[in-house]
Amino acid sequence: MVQGGFCGGDCGLGAGCVATIQMRQLCGGGVELPHRYAAAAPDAHVEHHAQREPAGESLTLPKHAYSVHLGRKKVIGLPAKICWKMDDERGVCVSIRIVLTGGPGAGKTVISRRIAAEHPERFVLVPEAATQVYDALQTRWDKLDVEGRRDVQRKIYRLQVDQEDRTAAANPDKILLLDRGTIDGAAYWPEGPADYWRDVQSTLEKELKRYDAVILLESSAALGLYDGDSSNFCRFEDAQGAIESGKLLLKLWGSHPNLKHVRAYTNLEEKIATVMDALAAV
Questions:
Q1: In whole angstroms, what is the distance from residue 120 CA to residue 101 CA?
Q2: Are 84 and 94 contacting, i.e. CB atoms less than 8 angstroms apart?
Q3: Alpha-carbon 224 to chain mean position
Q4: DSSP strand E in the chain: where?
Q5: Which of 174, 198, 202, 213 lies deepest, with the highest CB count within 10 Å?
Q6: Dist. CA 86–CA 24, nearest whole Å
């Protein structure tokens, strides 16, 4: 295997950022892509080109692309926006995924939507699965019995995984910006996180590996500014419940190696700017 990484300088994470990609070294000395993702070895020689040129069977490079060379042999053309990593467990290339999480009223939805809308060349939004499920069922957590709560969380988990995979496949050159992640569901499982993982046939450790960074936002309830269900019909927590939810999510996400915290702000623009700073530091 030839493994390595390269990101074009305009991929949004700064020049020289790394995304680990995999290629297969052929017996004849050429390099074959396992799928349409372009790749490069770490010691590759990189040249910039302004014209389009084919790169593999199904990938056409955009303008301002890079050709990658191993020694004197040109291997592949590389788009200027490659932001992927190698999933060693599955043996495939996957998009970088960054989660915005936190208790109700933390600003996850409005902030993730704003950032994705204002930086479409860099991010693609993965919307909150829970709101979609509750909206489809026209209910919310506190109106369900115990079995109903379990069933809803299963639906949310399956939708979360599905839309992450579909969004990544449709946007291979962008970073996935997620409004919550699969781990959030464990906070709402009636019997607690351990039973949740058993039911969805996963583990906390496995789910943590799905995500490259986590930004935990503090709820506005900490400042006495919580508006309850007036801005999201799915909310059932009061202000103290929103704070406690944030604490539980911190426990669930706390062992992630790239977890960042953003405190509550009275001014939304300041909070968005702080989140952008956190994203730049990922």
A1: 21
A2: yes
A3: 30
A4: 2-5, 20-25, 31-32, 45-49, 65-70, 73-78, 84-87, 92-95, 97-102, 123-126, 175-179, 213-217, 259-262
A5: 174
A6: 13
Please give the structure tokens belonging to residue 189.
């499982």
The C-alpha atoms of residue 238 and residue 229 are separated, in whole angstroms, by 9
Q: How far apart are CA 196 and CA 194, in angstroms?
A: 5
Distances (CA, A) of 153 to 15, 122, 157, 183: 40, 30, 6, 11
DSSP H or E stretch at residue 201:
none
Beta-bridge mates of residue 98: 177, 213
For the stretch 142-191, pLDDT in tens is 999 999 999 999 999 999 999 999 999 998 889 999 999 999 999 999 99
User: CB neighbours (10 Å) of residue 143?
Assistant: 12
For residue 37, the Cα-to-chain-centroid distance in whole angstroms is 18
Instruction: Please give the Cα distance from 70 to 3 (Å, whole number).
Output: 12
Q: CA 131, CA 231: separation in Å to the nearest integer?
A: 12
Strand (E) or helix (H) holding 135: helix 129-137
Spatial neighbors of 133 by CB under 8 A, at least 6 apart, are: 152, 155, 156, 159
The pTM score is 0.71
DSSP state of 142: G
Asked which of 86-90, 132-136, 226-230 is least confident by mean pLDDT, the reply is 86-90
Token couple for 6: 């390269």
